[in-house]
Amino acid sequence: MFRNKNKCNDEIQISHFLDHDQCFNQINNHNKSGALKVSDVVNRALIIAYKEETQLLETALIQEGLNCEVIRQQHQPQYKSFSPSYLCLLNHLRAWKIAAMQSQPTLITEADFVPVVGLGELPLPFNPYQTNVGMCWLYTCASQIYSISAEGYADGFSVSTVAYIVTPQCAGKLIEFATQLLQTSNPETYFTWDSQIDSFLRHHKLKNYVPFRNYGEHGGLPNLEHFLHGLSKTHRADVLYNQLHFLPPYASKSYCKFLSVRLYARIKGIVRLLVGKFLRLRVLKLSPIPARLVSFSIRRQISLHL
């Protein structure tokens, strides 16, 4: 379920976990079609953080063949009254400015992202030669799919910026997006800016993508700011591609707690599929490829990984 390098968590390793070589063999079986891997196209990862510990995440991403840079927000006196959501946008803006200057797509993660083993070997969830690629979420929340290409790429929607890939072109548009919001928003007021990204990019003729399964987990603790504004305190990956590199912070070093959280997330994901939230009935009725949409939606939930 997860792969932990830390000595302090050795006691929660169990014998039936797959070893590292077995994990990569499984990943290679998923990717035997010859599709481009994440590490073929993305070689840089930006980790957005404030005071959080990022060493485990850095180590995991380096093992996946990615060059890492941690972007830490430096506290300013005027930030004292700012909403955490506003500060989060400021930090992502810094990452977008860096990504816009690159020649290749960039992986951006928040400090509480926990990647799966073999992330670098997983199939890239979009066609990098396509000229209108926007954002590609590697971790999804409240996701939906709109269409599936002949190559199997899922055009879709998600909120949350826990982990995603942006092309230089997309990063440039996201800078515009952030600039507009920062000019019109009250920095002391909570706002769900991440839920507006998809519509903004699609307005600018960019297509956004979601992966077949999540390439990692949101390991963060409950967000009280979300809860105070009527949203869920937590969100977790509905289905993972593989076991995780390390135990998420929300588990508090308890394997039992980790299992219960993951089991709940899996059940919630299956329920979303059954009630038509992942694949909307209207989308299915209007689609010229309904069978492809249904197949993708069902197959992604058929997984032994919690």
How are the elements arranged and paired?
Blueprint: H1 20-30, H2 38-41, E1 44-49, H3 55-63, E2 67-72, H4 84-99, E3 106-110, E4 113-115, E5 133-137, E6 141-148, E7 154-159, E8 163-166, H5 168-184, H6 197-203, E9 207-210, E10 216-218, H7 224-228, H8 255-274, H9 281-286, H10 290-299
Parallel strand pairs: 1-2, 1-3, 5-9
Antiparallel strand pairs: 3-8, 4-10, 5-8, 6-7, 7-9
Helix pairs in contact: 4-5
Account of the protein in words:
The strands form two sheets. The protein has an eight-stranded mixed β-sheet, sandwiched between helices. It starts with 19 loop residues before the first helix and ends in a 7-residue tail after the last helix. Helix 4 packs antiparallel against helix 5. It has ten helices and ten strands. Strand 6 (141-148) and strand 7 (154-159) form a beta hairpin. By secondary structure, the chain is an alpha/beta fold.
Average the pLDDT over all residues and give the rounded result.
88
Strand content: 15-25%
* Main β-sheet, spatial strand arrangement: 2-1-3-8-5-9-7-6
Spell out the helices and strands N to C: HHEHEHEEEEEEHHEEHHHH
**Outline:** globular
Helix content: 25-40%
Radius of gyration: 19 Å
Low-confidence stretches: 1-33
For the biggest sheet, the summary is: 8 strands, mixed
Q: Count every beta strand, where a strand is a DSSP E run of 2 or more residues.
A: 10
Give the distance, in angstroms, between the N- and C-terminal Cα atoms: 7 Å
Number of helices: 10
Q: Could you say which structural class the secondary elements and strand pairing correspond to?
A: alpha/beta
Quaternary structure: single chain
